[in-house]
Amino acid sequence: xxxxxxxxxxxxxxxxxxxxxxxxxxxxxxTFGAQATVAPDGVPVAVAAPPxxxxxxxxxxxxxxxxxxxxxxxxxxxxxxxxxxGVLELAPGPVATVVTSGAVNPAGTQVAQQAxxxxxxxxxxxxxxxxxxxxxxxGRTAPLAASALTWIGALVAGLGLTxxxxxxxxxxxxxxRFLQVVGVGVLLTAAVAGFFALWDSALPLDAGxxxxxxxxxxxxxxVQAGLLRLLGLRAMAVLxxxxxxxxxxxxxxxxxxxxxxxxxxxxxxPFRFPAEGLRSLLQGVPGAPDVTTGLWVLGALLAAxxxxxxxxxxxxxxxxxxxxxxxxxxxxxx
Length: 334
Prior knowledge:
The chain is an alpha/beta fold. The protein is 63% helix and 7% strand. The protein is built from 12 helices and 5 strands. Strands 2-1-3-4-5 form a 5-stranded mixed sheet, sandwiched between helices.
């Protein structure tokens, strides 16, 4: 009999080096690559101005801006619906007005504000700045922070339950998995609320905000629990890198991302749905479309995650069925 084949230490070193390089490539693609390739491309803005001025503005900014000509009321409604990142109002008079909103993604708002200010200055001098739903630094940070914290908190909880069950040799039943999902939702909602109160006491902590955070936390916990149940620790190869997408991609708007990142990452990343919906709720705009979108997406994730997490496995079905030896067969006496 031959013993196990031992590979030379040099070969193992090369394998380890290759693994390290692969991890660096993945991390670079998911994080720094998205930030390094940021450039405006068709950033949507609105202008309320006479037709002749609007036509001149349409040529301003090249392909970096996508102009929509509207009345002042229509332009502000587009901003409220988050279909544009800023509005330039050029009403009859010597001073123009640039209108932005604290309920809109700050990355898109910054680009729109700079571009609109430059256009207004070229036409009529430095404009006035008007901010709808003013936002504090904490208010700008809180939505994405809550999304990322609920993901990583739920991930640690799911991984901890999986490892504890493995070490103790206990099987995780449906009741325990459901309790974990609900417990994660309650505790992470409390943690996020505590951070919000610490960062800015003016941030609202009403039923709408807390309920939305709870929905996000339970949805993330259910999806992660389902994948951990199906794949075990191998699920970490998917769930771990997803956390890196949060600050690099989900905090941006699609018009600033390279088309590759826009299609491959931003289009489906789960973090942007709770982040943008929560941003509207924190700024007092519960009727914004992204709140409804967030509710639908997170609700679907929660339902799918619970279905996978709580679906009876083979062992559970076998335990529920009586064994042939335990069955009693009645024999009639004639």
